[in-house]
Design a protein that fits this description.
Length: 258
């Protein structure tokens, strides 16, 4: 079971229920981020049906349950609601529950969940539009930094701050070099995202940082070759790298914070 700051014991089922609801909520928020951040739309206005523009009522806006209650159709125009909404919500639910099973410290669990809450929308935007919006990579870095500082203060882990910051700067310089060498294979979005990866993995040590990077490049190569084999990509196809960097970071957490 998870060790760490929590000395109050809550029943396991209640913890999973709470984290599950949290996951669905962040999943729902992720669908809003994916739809609105790339076009700089407001994040606070109510959601509308993409077909008839009917404003959703609160009960039509409950993650997953509304989709089931409405049987996947808009209550006004009857148009099919895309499966991506419940799909993303359930994916986030799974991503929020997984670290409770896989990781052994609350700091690692929360870092994973932050990485999931922002990393899933970042991955989908990168896959569909080949960009990683500054707002999301910036939030990821800021929130991760706060968690790391909080952990360092709570556990007296000040010796891990320097490797963490060095990881952020070092990995950014490495990706900047790749951006220059690859001439368009990497983007500035990847460089900015690498700061968070370096920061988080660096906090768990140099091996965690190397594992996060090695996993990202291995996964990227594997999927790239796979896409070429099934004819979905050519030698010149730009494959977004953000999703692999995020997946690599999660793998590194499983190995070094288990
Ligand atoms: Zn409608």
């Amino acid at each position: 079971m998870l060790a760490g700051a929590m000395s109050v014991s809550i029943p396991t089922w209640l913890l999973y229920l709470f984290v599950g609801v949290l996951g669905l909520t962040f999943g729902s928020f992720a669908t809003v981020l994916i739809a609105r951040v790339p076009t700089s739309e407001s994040l606070t206005t109510r959601s509308r049906c993409v077909h008839c523009a009917k404003q959703l009522t609160w009960w039509e806006n409950i993650p997953l349950f509304s989709y089931i209650a409405l049987r996947g159709k808009c209550s006004a125009c009857g148009a099919r609601i895309s499966f991506r909404y419940p799909g993303i919500e359930v994916s986030m639910l799974i991503l929020f529950i997984l670290p409770l099973v896989l990781l052994n410290s609350w700091t690692a669990v929360i870092l994973w969940q932050v990485m999931a809450a922002l990393g899933l929308p970042l991955s989908i935007i990168d896959a569909e539009q080949h960009r990683l919006p500054d707002l999301l990579t910036g939030c990821l870095f800021g929130v991760s930094l706060l968690i790391i500082i909080g952990d360092a203060i709570h556990w007296n882990h000040f010796d891990r701050i320097a490797p963490s910051l060095m990881g952020a700067v070092g990995l950014m310089l490495f990706y900047l070099l790749l951006l220059i060498i690859s001439r368009g294979g990497m983007g500035m979005g990847d460089v900015k995202l690498s700061a968070s990866i370096g920061l988080i993995s660096g906090y768990f040590g140099i091996h965690a940082l190397l594992t996060a990077s090695f996993s990202a490049f291995s996964l990227g190569a594997l999927i790239g070759i796979g896409l070429m084999l099934i004819g979905k990509a050519g030698r010149k196809t730009a494959i977004p790298f953000g999703p692999f960097m995020i997946a690599g970071q999660l793998i590194s957490l499983v190995i070094y914070a288990h």
